[in-house]
Amino acid sequence: MEAGASTGARRLHPPERVAEYTAAGWWEGATVDSLLRARVREHPGRPALVDPLNKADLVDSPPLRLTWAEIDAEADRLAAVLLRHGLGQGDVLGVQLPNTAEQVCVYLACWRIGVIVSPLPVQYREHETVQLGRLASFDAFVTASRIGVRRVAADVLAVRDRIPSLRLVLAYGTDVPAGAVALADEAALPYDPAAVSAYTGAHPAGPNDCVTICWTSGTESTPKGVPRCHNDWLAIARTCAEAPRMTSDDVLLNPFPMVNMAGFAGLFLPWLRVGCVLVQHHPFDLPVFLRQIAEEHVTYTVAPPAVLTMLLAREDLLAATDLSSLTRIGSGSAPLSEAMVRGWQERHGIGVINFFGSNEGTGMLTDPYDVPDPADRARYFPRYGAASGVRWSTLAADWTSLRLVDPATGADIEEPGVPGELRIKSPQVFAGYLHGSRLPSPFDASGYLRTGDLFEIAGARGEFLRYVDRAGDLIVRGGMNIAPAELEHLLSGHPAVAEVAVVACPDAVLGERVCAVVVPEQGAVVTLADLTGHLRELRIASYKLPERLEVRGALPRNPVGKVLKRTLREELG
Questions:
Q1: Residue 559 clears pLDDT 50, i.e. is over it
Q2: Within 13 A of 189's CA, how many CA atoms are on the CB side?
Q3: Which of 43, 49, 79, 42 is nearest to 64 (CA)?
Q4: Structure confidence at residue 483 (pLDDT)
Q5: Torsion angles phi and psi, residue 346, rounded to 5
Q6: Which of 100, 426, 437, 485 has fewest C-beta within 10 Å?
Q7: CA 153/CA 356 separation, integer angstroms
Q8: CATH number of the CATH domain containing 519
Q9: Alpha-carbon 496 to chain mean position
Q10: Is residue 116 over pLDDT 80?
Q11: What proportion of the chain, given as a percentage, has pLDDT over 70?
């Protein structure tokens, strides 16, 4: 997909793939807006969406509890505002909002009229806004006058001239700065619903139309845009709703920012599929999280492994919280420990579902129904398509084709215990990167996605895959991905830094933290405060800042000069 300024639907997958997957029933031909309209027809007055308890600490707008009909009406009003300001099908809207009702309604408004959403984490600052806004050619940007203590709308306006395509900034909240449109005020103006209907009738959404451009935080210094259409998002949502056996009676608690695979596929889109209640949470705050489980009678949530491990060690917290409604939990983003999965199951009767995924579409899961043993569920994922005599209940088993490939020879691996790169073909896999013609193809000659993740065949019948290692050097800090190459590029601009390597160091709570290993310039002294101060001046997201500094005389390298980051990680513990 190539971004541009012209308005019009941007279709992602080739027609032959759409025809094949639709004929097989893997793609249903639905759109996100058609799911919303179905929920409104079924249960217009039923509670559907609940704001975070601490919303007042985040933004200047009151906490909301909305029914399906109220969500639909607000999405329609916001769609009218976007149309009034010249946005329409195929335009790209950058969105930087916390998990709130407003965020949900903005997304749904965009998808009603064909506007593409490019969501940014609230931690991103001017550096990332400019970088991604230029890559995706943002036509407009929606944020809040305040998110926490930051005046985000003002920050965006300050860099507006550095994003040539950006013609409009809209903001929620009070004290909206001059130059931005006060979105809540605009949405309160009278509008004609028939005008929105007329627009959608003249510009119908197709299931192959792009709806989001999310962003990788891979090992490259420049993030890659991952466009997604209705078809592949809703295929992912089918399996993520199926894994916990989600129904319309569930109450979901969402602590993951709705900016990428975890936030969209884990709870948001499954919520639209089944029509239950979605309770928003942001930023992650353990006392608030536990209070929401008790007060909202939450039945299903997702959480990083480090949080679930820490909670098991804090029986005092769990004993003081009513968890009686909670029946299952999803987790992923890092390998799960057997002790954690077993502890939740045996002490609290709660099954943990093991998810493995990526923005590009590596989608696998191990649930308590197919794999009741906690040890197997923590270590393994189903080897879909293997002739092992094992039947998997998930739809993904029927529509997913997997390969393990020897990275050196390119040969397929069929024997257990031999690591190979996982390659995958599925209706959950994306069509290709933004500006893909300028990048190496992520697909092999047979059309399989090259994931870069190493697995090996396991299990008595070869029915499982075991995760071996994460490709590249990605750092996962509390569920947030950090690209070392980006930080290395920025830190190398510090006058006292001769060489730098950024690697993960282990952390009991967050899983990993950022460590900068620096070789100083001759005679220079480098401190952690120097490095973080340098990065803060570049207006980079604070969660990326190094939290540990190691000063070395030289970096370990292999015979061809490549820095041995694995050696550094081992030395750091």
A1: no
A2: 13
A3: 49
A4: 74
A5: -85, -30
A6: 437
A7: 35
A8: 3.30.300.30
A9: 36
A10: yes
A11: 96
Instruction: List, in sequence order, every residue forming a beta bridge with 118; answer none if it has no partner.
Output: 94
Higher-confidence position of 328 and 306? 328
For residue 304 the two structure tokens come to 């990083």
Average pLDDT over residues 171-181: 96
SS3 call for 548? strand
Give yes or no: residues 55 and 130 share one domain: yes
- Which DSSP state fits 494? S
Strand 475-477, strand 464-469: pairing: unpaired
Highest mean pLDDT among 250-264, 329-343, 494-508 belongs to: 250-264
For the question of whether the overall pTM of this predicted structure is more than 0.85, the answer is yes
SS3 call for 117: strand
Contact 277, 471 (CB under 8 A): no
**Burial label, 16 (beta-carbon count in 10 A; 0-12, 13-18, 19+):** exposed
Q: Concatenate the DSSP letters of all residues of 136-181 into one string.
A: HT-SEEEEES-BTTB-HHHHHHHTGGGSTT--EEEEESSSPPTTSE
Express each pLDDT in 185-215 by its tens digit.
999 999 999 999 999 999 999 999 999 999 9
| Structure-token pair, residue 27 | 């793609």
Asked if 161 and 189 touch (Cβ cutoff 8 Å), the reply is no
Query: Which one of 469, 491, 522 terminates a domain?
Result: 469
Percent above pLDDT 90 for the chain = 73
The two most distant CA atoms of the chain are separated, in Å, by 71
Last residue of a domain, one of 186, 206, 228: 228
Q: For residue 38, give the 3-state DSSP assignment.
A: helix
Q: Which amino acid is at 566?
A: R
Token pair in block for residue 310:
């820490």
Distance between CA 125 and CA 318 in Å, rounded? 36
Q: Quick count: other Cβ atoms within 10 Å of Cβ 23?
A: 9
Do 421 and 444 belong to one domain? yes
**Are residue 315 and residue 182 in the same domain, yes or no?**
no
Instruction: Report how far apart, in Å, the C-alpha atoms of 391 and of each of 369, 386, 398, 428 are.
Output: 12, 10, 10, 20
497 plus 559 within the same structural domain: yes
